[in-house]
Design a protein that fits this description.
By secondary structure, the chain is α/β, with parallel strands linked by helices. The chain has one domain: 3-Layer(aba) Sandwich (Rossmann fold). It has a 7-stranded mixed beta sheet, with helices on both faces. Helix 3 links the parallel strand 4 and strand 5. The termini are far apart. The relative contact order is 0.14.
């Protein structure tokens, strides 16, 4: 594993990382309870969350962070997958560190089926986790809700649902971690905008992909002649 992959794997093996995995995983499972029946791509560093579902759907792991156990390496803007081949894409630790975010989302649009869904897990710039670099959520560029929405819309996605997680402060103190569930439940009810991460679900916006107000084209239409045409000439 390269240094970045090693750092991600090491974080998720710590008490703080296990709490983050549990809190975020609970919201992913809430949004996609039927993931076991779907063909799901885990993109970025989604390995900790792909075990949420069991079923007959395919599971694929791709990461731009370098070779990693169970995951193939892929460029951000060139996914080695055919068009319209997936039901779901779970993008974690990917958008905020990508040097080609627009290209990455364009590729997600390409490989998703027409009724497919993308779930982006991204650090919230208003939350505390984005401001401490001892976790992966403090790396790269954090986003506001409006920024993520605009970026998705520019790449022909339509936001369908939003969730929030990680309201517990990002410190490995046993007293805090023991009450992480209470922090999350209280935070979602009272201060959702201060979550450590945002979960943004989006579908392909088929109407946006159709050009509007375009110049009409004159087409020649060939229709069959009526059966009595020859007799009337």
């Amino acid at each position: 594993m390269n240094a970045e992959v090693h750092a991600l794997a090491e974080f998720y093996s710590t008490p703080l990382g296990r709490v983050a995995e549990r809190m975020i995983g609970a919201r992913i499972a809430y949004l996609w309870p039927d993931g076991g029946r779907r063909d799901v791509l885990g993109l970025g560093w989604a390995a900790p969350y792909m075990g949420l579902w069991s079923g007959h759907g395919r599971r694929i792991l791709l990461t731009p962070h370098g070779p990693a156990p169970g995951a193939a390496w892929a460029e951000d803007a060139r996914l080695p997958l055919p068009d319209t081949s997936l039901d779901r894409i779970l993008l974690v630790h990917g958008l905020e560190t990508s040097e080609a975010a627009s290209g990455l989302l364009r590729e997600c649009w390409r490989v998703l089926r027409d009724d497919g869904q993308l779930l982006v897990v991204v650090p919230n710039r208003l939350g505390g986790w984005a401001h401490f670099d001892h976790t992966p959520f403090g790396q790269g560029r954090p986003y506001s809700r409006g920024q993520v929405t605009r970026l998705l819309e520019q790449r022909l996605f339509r936001v369908t649902r939003r969730e929030a997680a990680l309201f517990v402060p990002p410190f490995p103190w046993r007293m805090l971690l023991g009450g992480a569930g209470i922090w999350d439940r209280t935070g979602r009810r009272l201060v959702r905008r201060l979550a450590g991460v945002m979960l943004i679900e989006a579908g392909k916006d088929q109407l946006a992909a159709i050009p509007g107000a375009g110049q009409s084209l004159r087409r020649r239409v060939v229709a069959p002649l009526p059966s009595n045409y020859a007799r009337n000439v």
